[in-house]
């Protein structure tokens, strides 16, 4: 069976901001831009919704071997990640649990993981955001007691922690030469975390952005 469509927990909040452009080929539509100031906000501190991206997980004692047999570059260490050839990523959340994000063909396969011995599919209905910009670390320090500059020094690492009281998985990358962090949280807390992060970003001179600003 195919992985269920992941509905963005903040879809209505995005539409309330009257986005100027969206990708209608995905459901819900992915916001591409809000206004002409997207790039300026992204350069300072921007937050974009990535909840529309396909994602799924697998766990169990046979998960690492099963994923490797699919030809995936399985991270060897817990709490680490690596990119996939089609632009997605695979993260190892512990010894036996994995997340694949951004590659529909692989996430569809992961939802069939229960057919293999010792491998169990994990339905992921996360809220997922990208945080970027020169002042992104100031936002992170206001919402979490982890100094995320350690991620900058170890780009293959990810952290499972709490942000504004919400459990998150977060990693560091770069997008369009901007410092950028990807994060995932339980979808039921997505709107609260989004509103909190957007509020702080706006105080710092940034705010919400569309996907085009990340590209």
Could you give the topology of this structure?
Layout: H1 11-16, E1 21-23, E2 30-33, H2 38-45, E3 46-49, E4 55-59, H3 63-69, E5 80-83, E6 89-92, E7 97-101, H4 104-110, E8 120-122, E9 126-132, H5 136-143, H6 149-153, E10 158-163, E11 166-175, E12 178-186, H7 190-203, E13 207-208
Parallel strand pairs: 3-13
Antiparallel strand pairs: 1-2, 3-9, 4-7, 4-8, 5-6, 6-7, 9-12, 10-11, 11-12
Please characterize this protein's 3D structure.
The protein is built from seven helices and 13 strands. Helix content is 26%, strand content 31%. It has a six-stranded mixed β-sheet. The protein has a five-stranded antiparallel β-sheet with strand order 5-6-7-4-8, with helices on one face. It folds into two domains: 11-50 and 126-213, Gyrase A, domain 2, CATH 3.30.1360.120; 55-122, Alpha-Beta Plaits (2-Layer Sandwich), CATH 3.30.70. It has helices spanning 11-16, 38-45, 63-69, 104-110, 136-143, 149-153, 190-203; strands spanning 21-23, 30-33, 46-49, 55-59, 80-83, 89-92, 97-101, 120-122, 126-132, 158-163, 166-175, 178-186, 207-208. It is globular and about 50 Å long. The model is unreliable at 1-6 (pLDDT under 50). With 215 residues, the chain is α+β, with helices and mostly antiparallel strands.
């Amino acid at each position: 069976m195919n992985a269920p469509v992941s509905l963005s927990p903040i879809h209505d909040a995005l539409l309330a901001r009257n986005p100027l452009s969206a990708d209608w080929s995905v459901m819900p539509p992915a916001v591409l831009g809000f206004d002409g100031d997207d790039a300026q906000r992204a350069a300072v501190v921007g937050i974009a919704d990535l909840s529309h991206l396909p994602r799924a997980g697998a766990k169990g004692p046979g998960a690492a071997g099963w994923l490797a047999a699919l030809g995936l570059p399985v991270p060897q260490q817990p709490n680490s990640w690596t990119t996939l050839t089609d632009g997605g990523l695979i993260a190892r959340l512990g010894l036996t649990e994995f997340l694949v994000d951004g590659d529909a063909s692989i996430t569809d396969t992961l939802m069939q993981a229960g057919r293999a011995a010792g491998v169990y599919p994990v339905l992921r209905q996360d809220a997922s955001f990208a945080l970027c910009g020169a002042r992104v670390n100031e936002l992170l320090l206001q919402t979490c007691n982890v100094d995320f500059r350690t991620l900058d020094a170890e780009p293959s690492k990810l952290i499972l922690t709490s942000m504004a009281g919400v459990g998150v998985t977060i990693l560091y990358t770069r997008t369009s030469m901007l410092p950028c962090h990807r994060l995932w949280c339980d979808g039921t807390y997505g709107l609260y975390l989004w509103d909190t992060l957007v509020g702080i970003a706006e105080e710092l001179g940034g705010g919400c952005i569309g996907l085009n600003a990340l590209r």
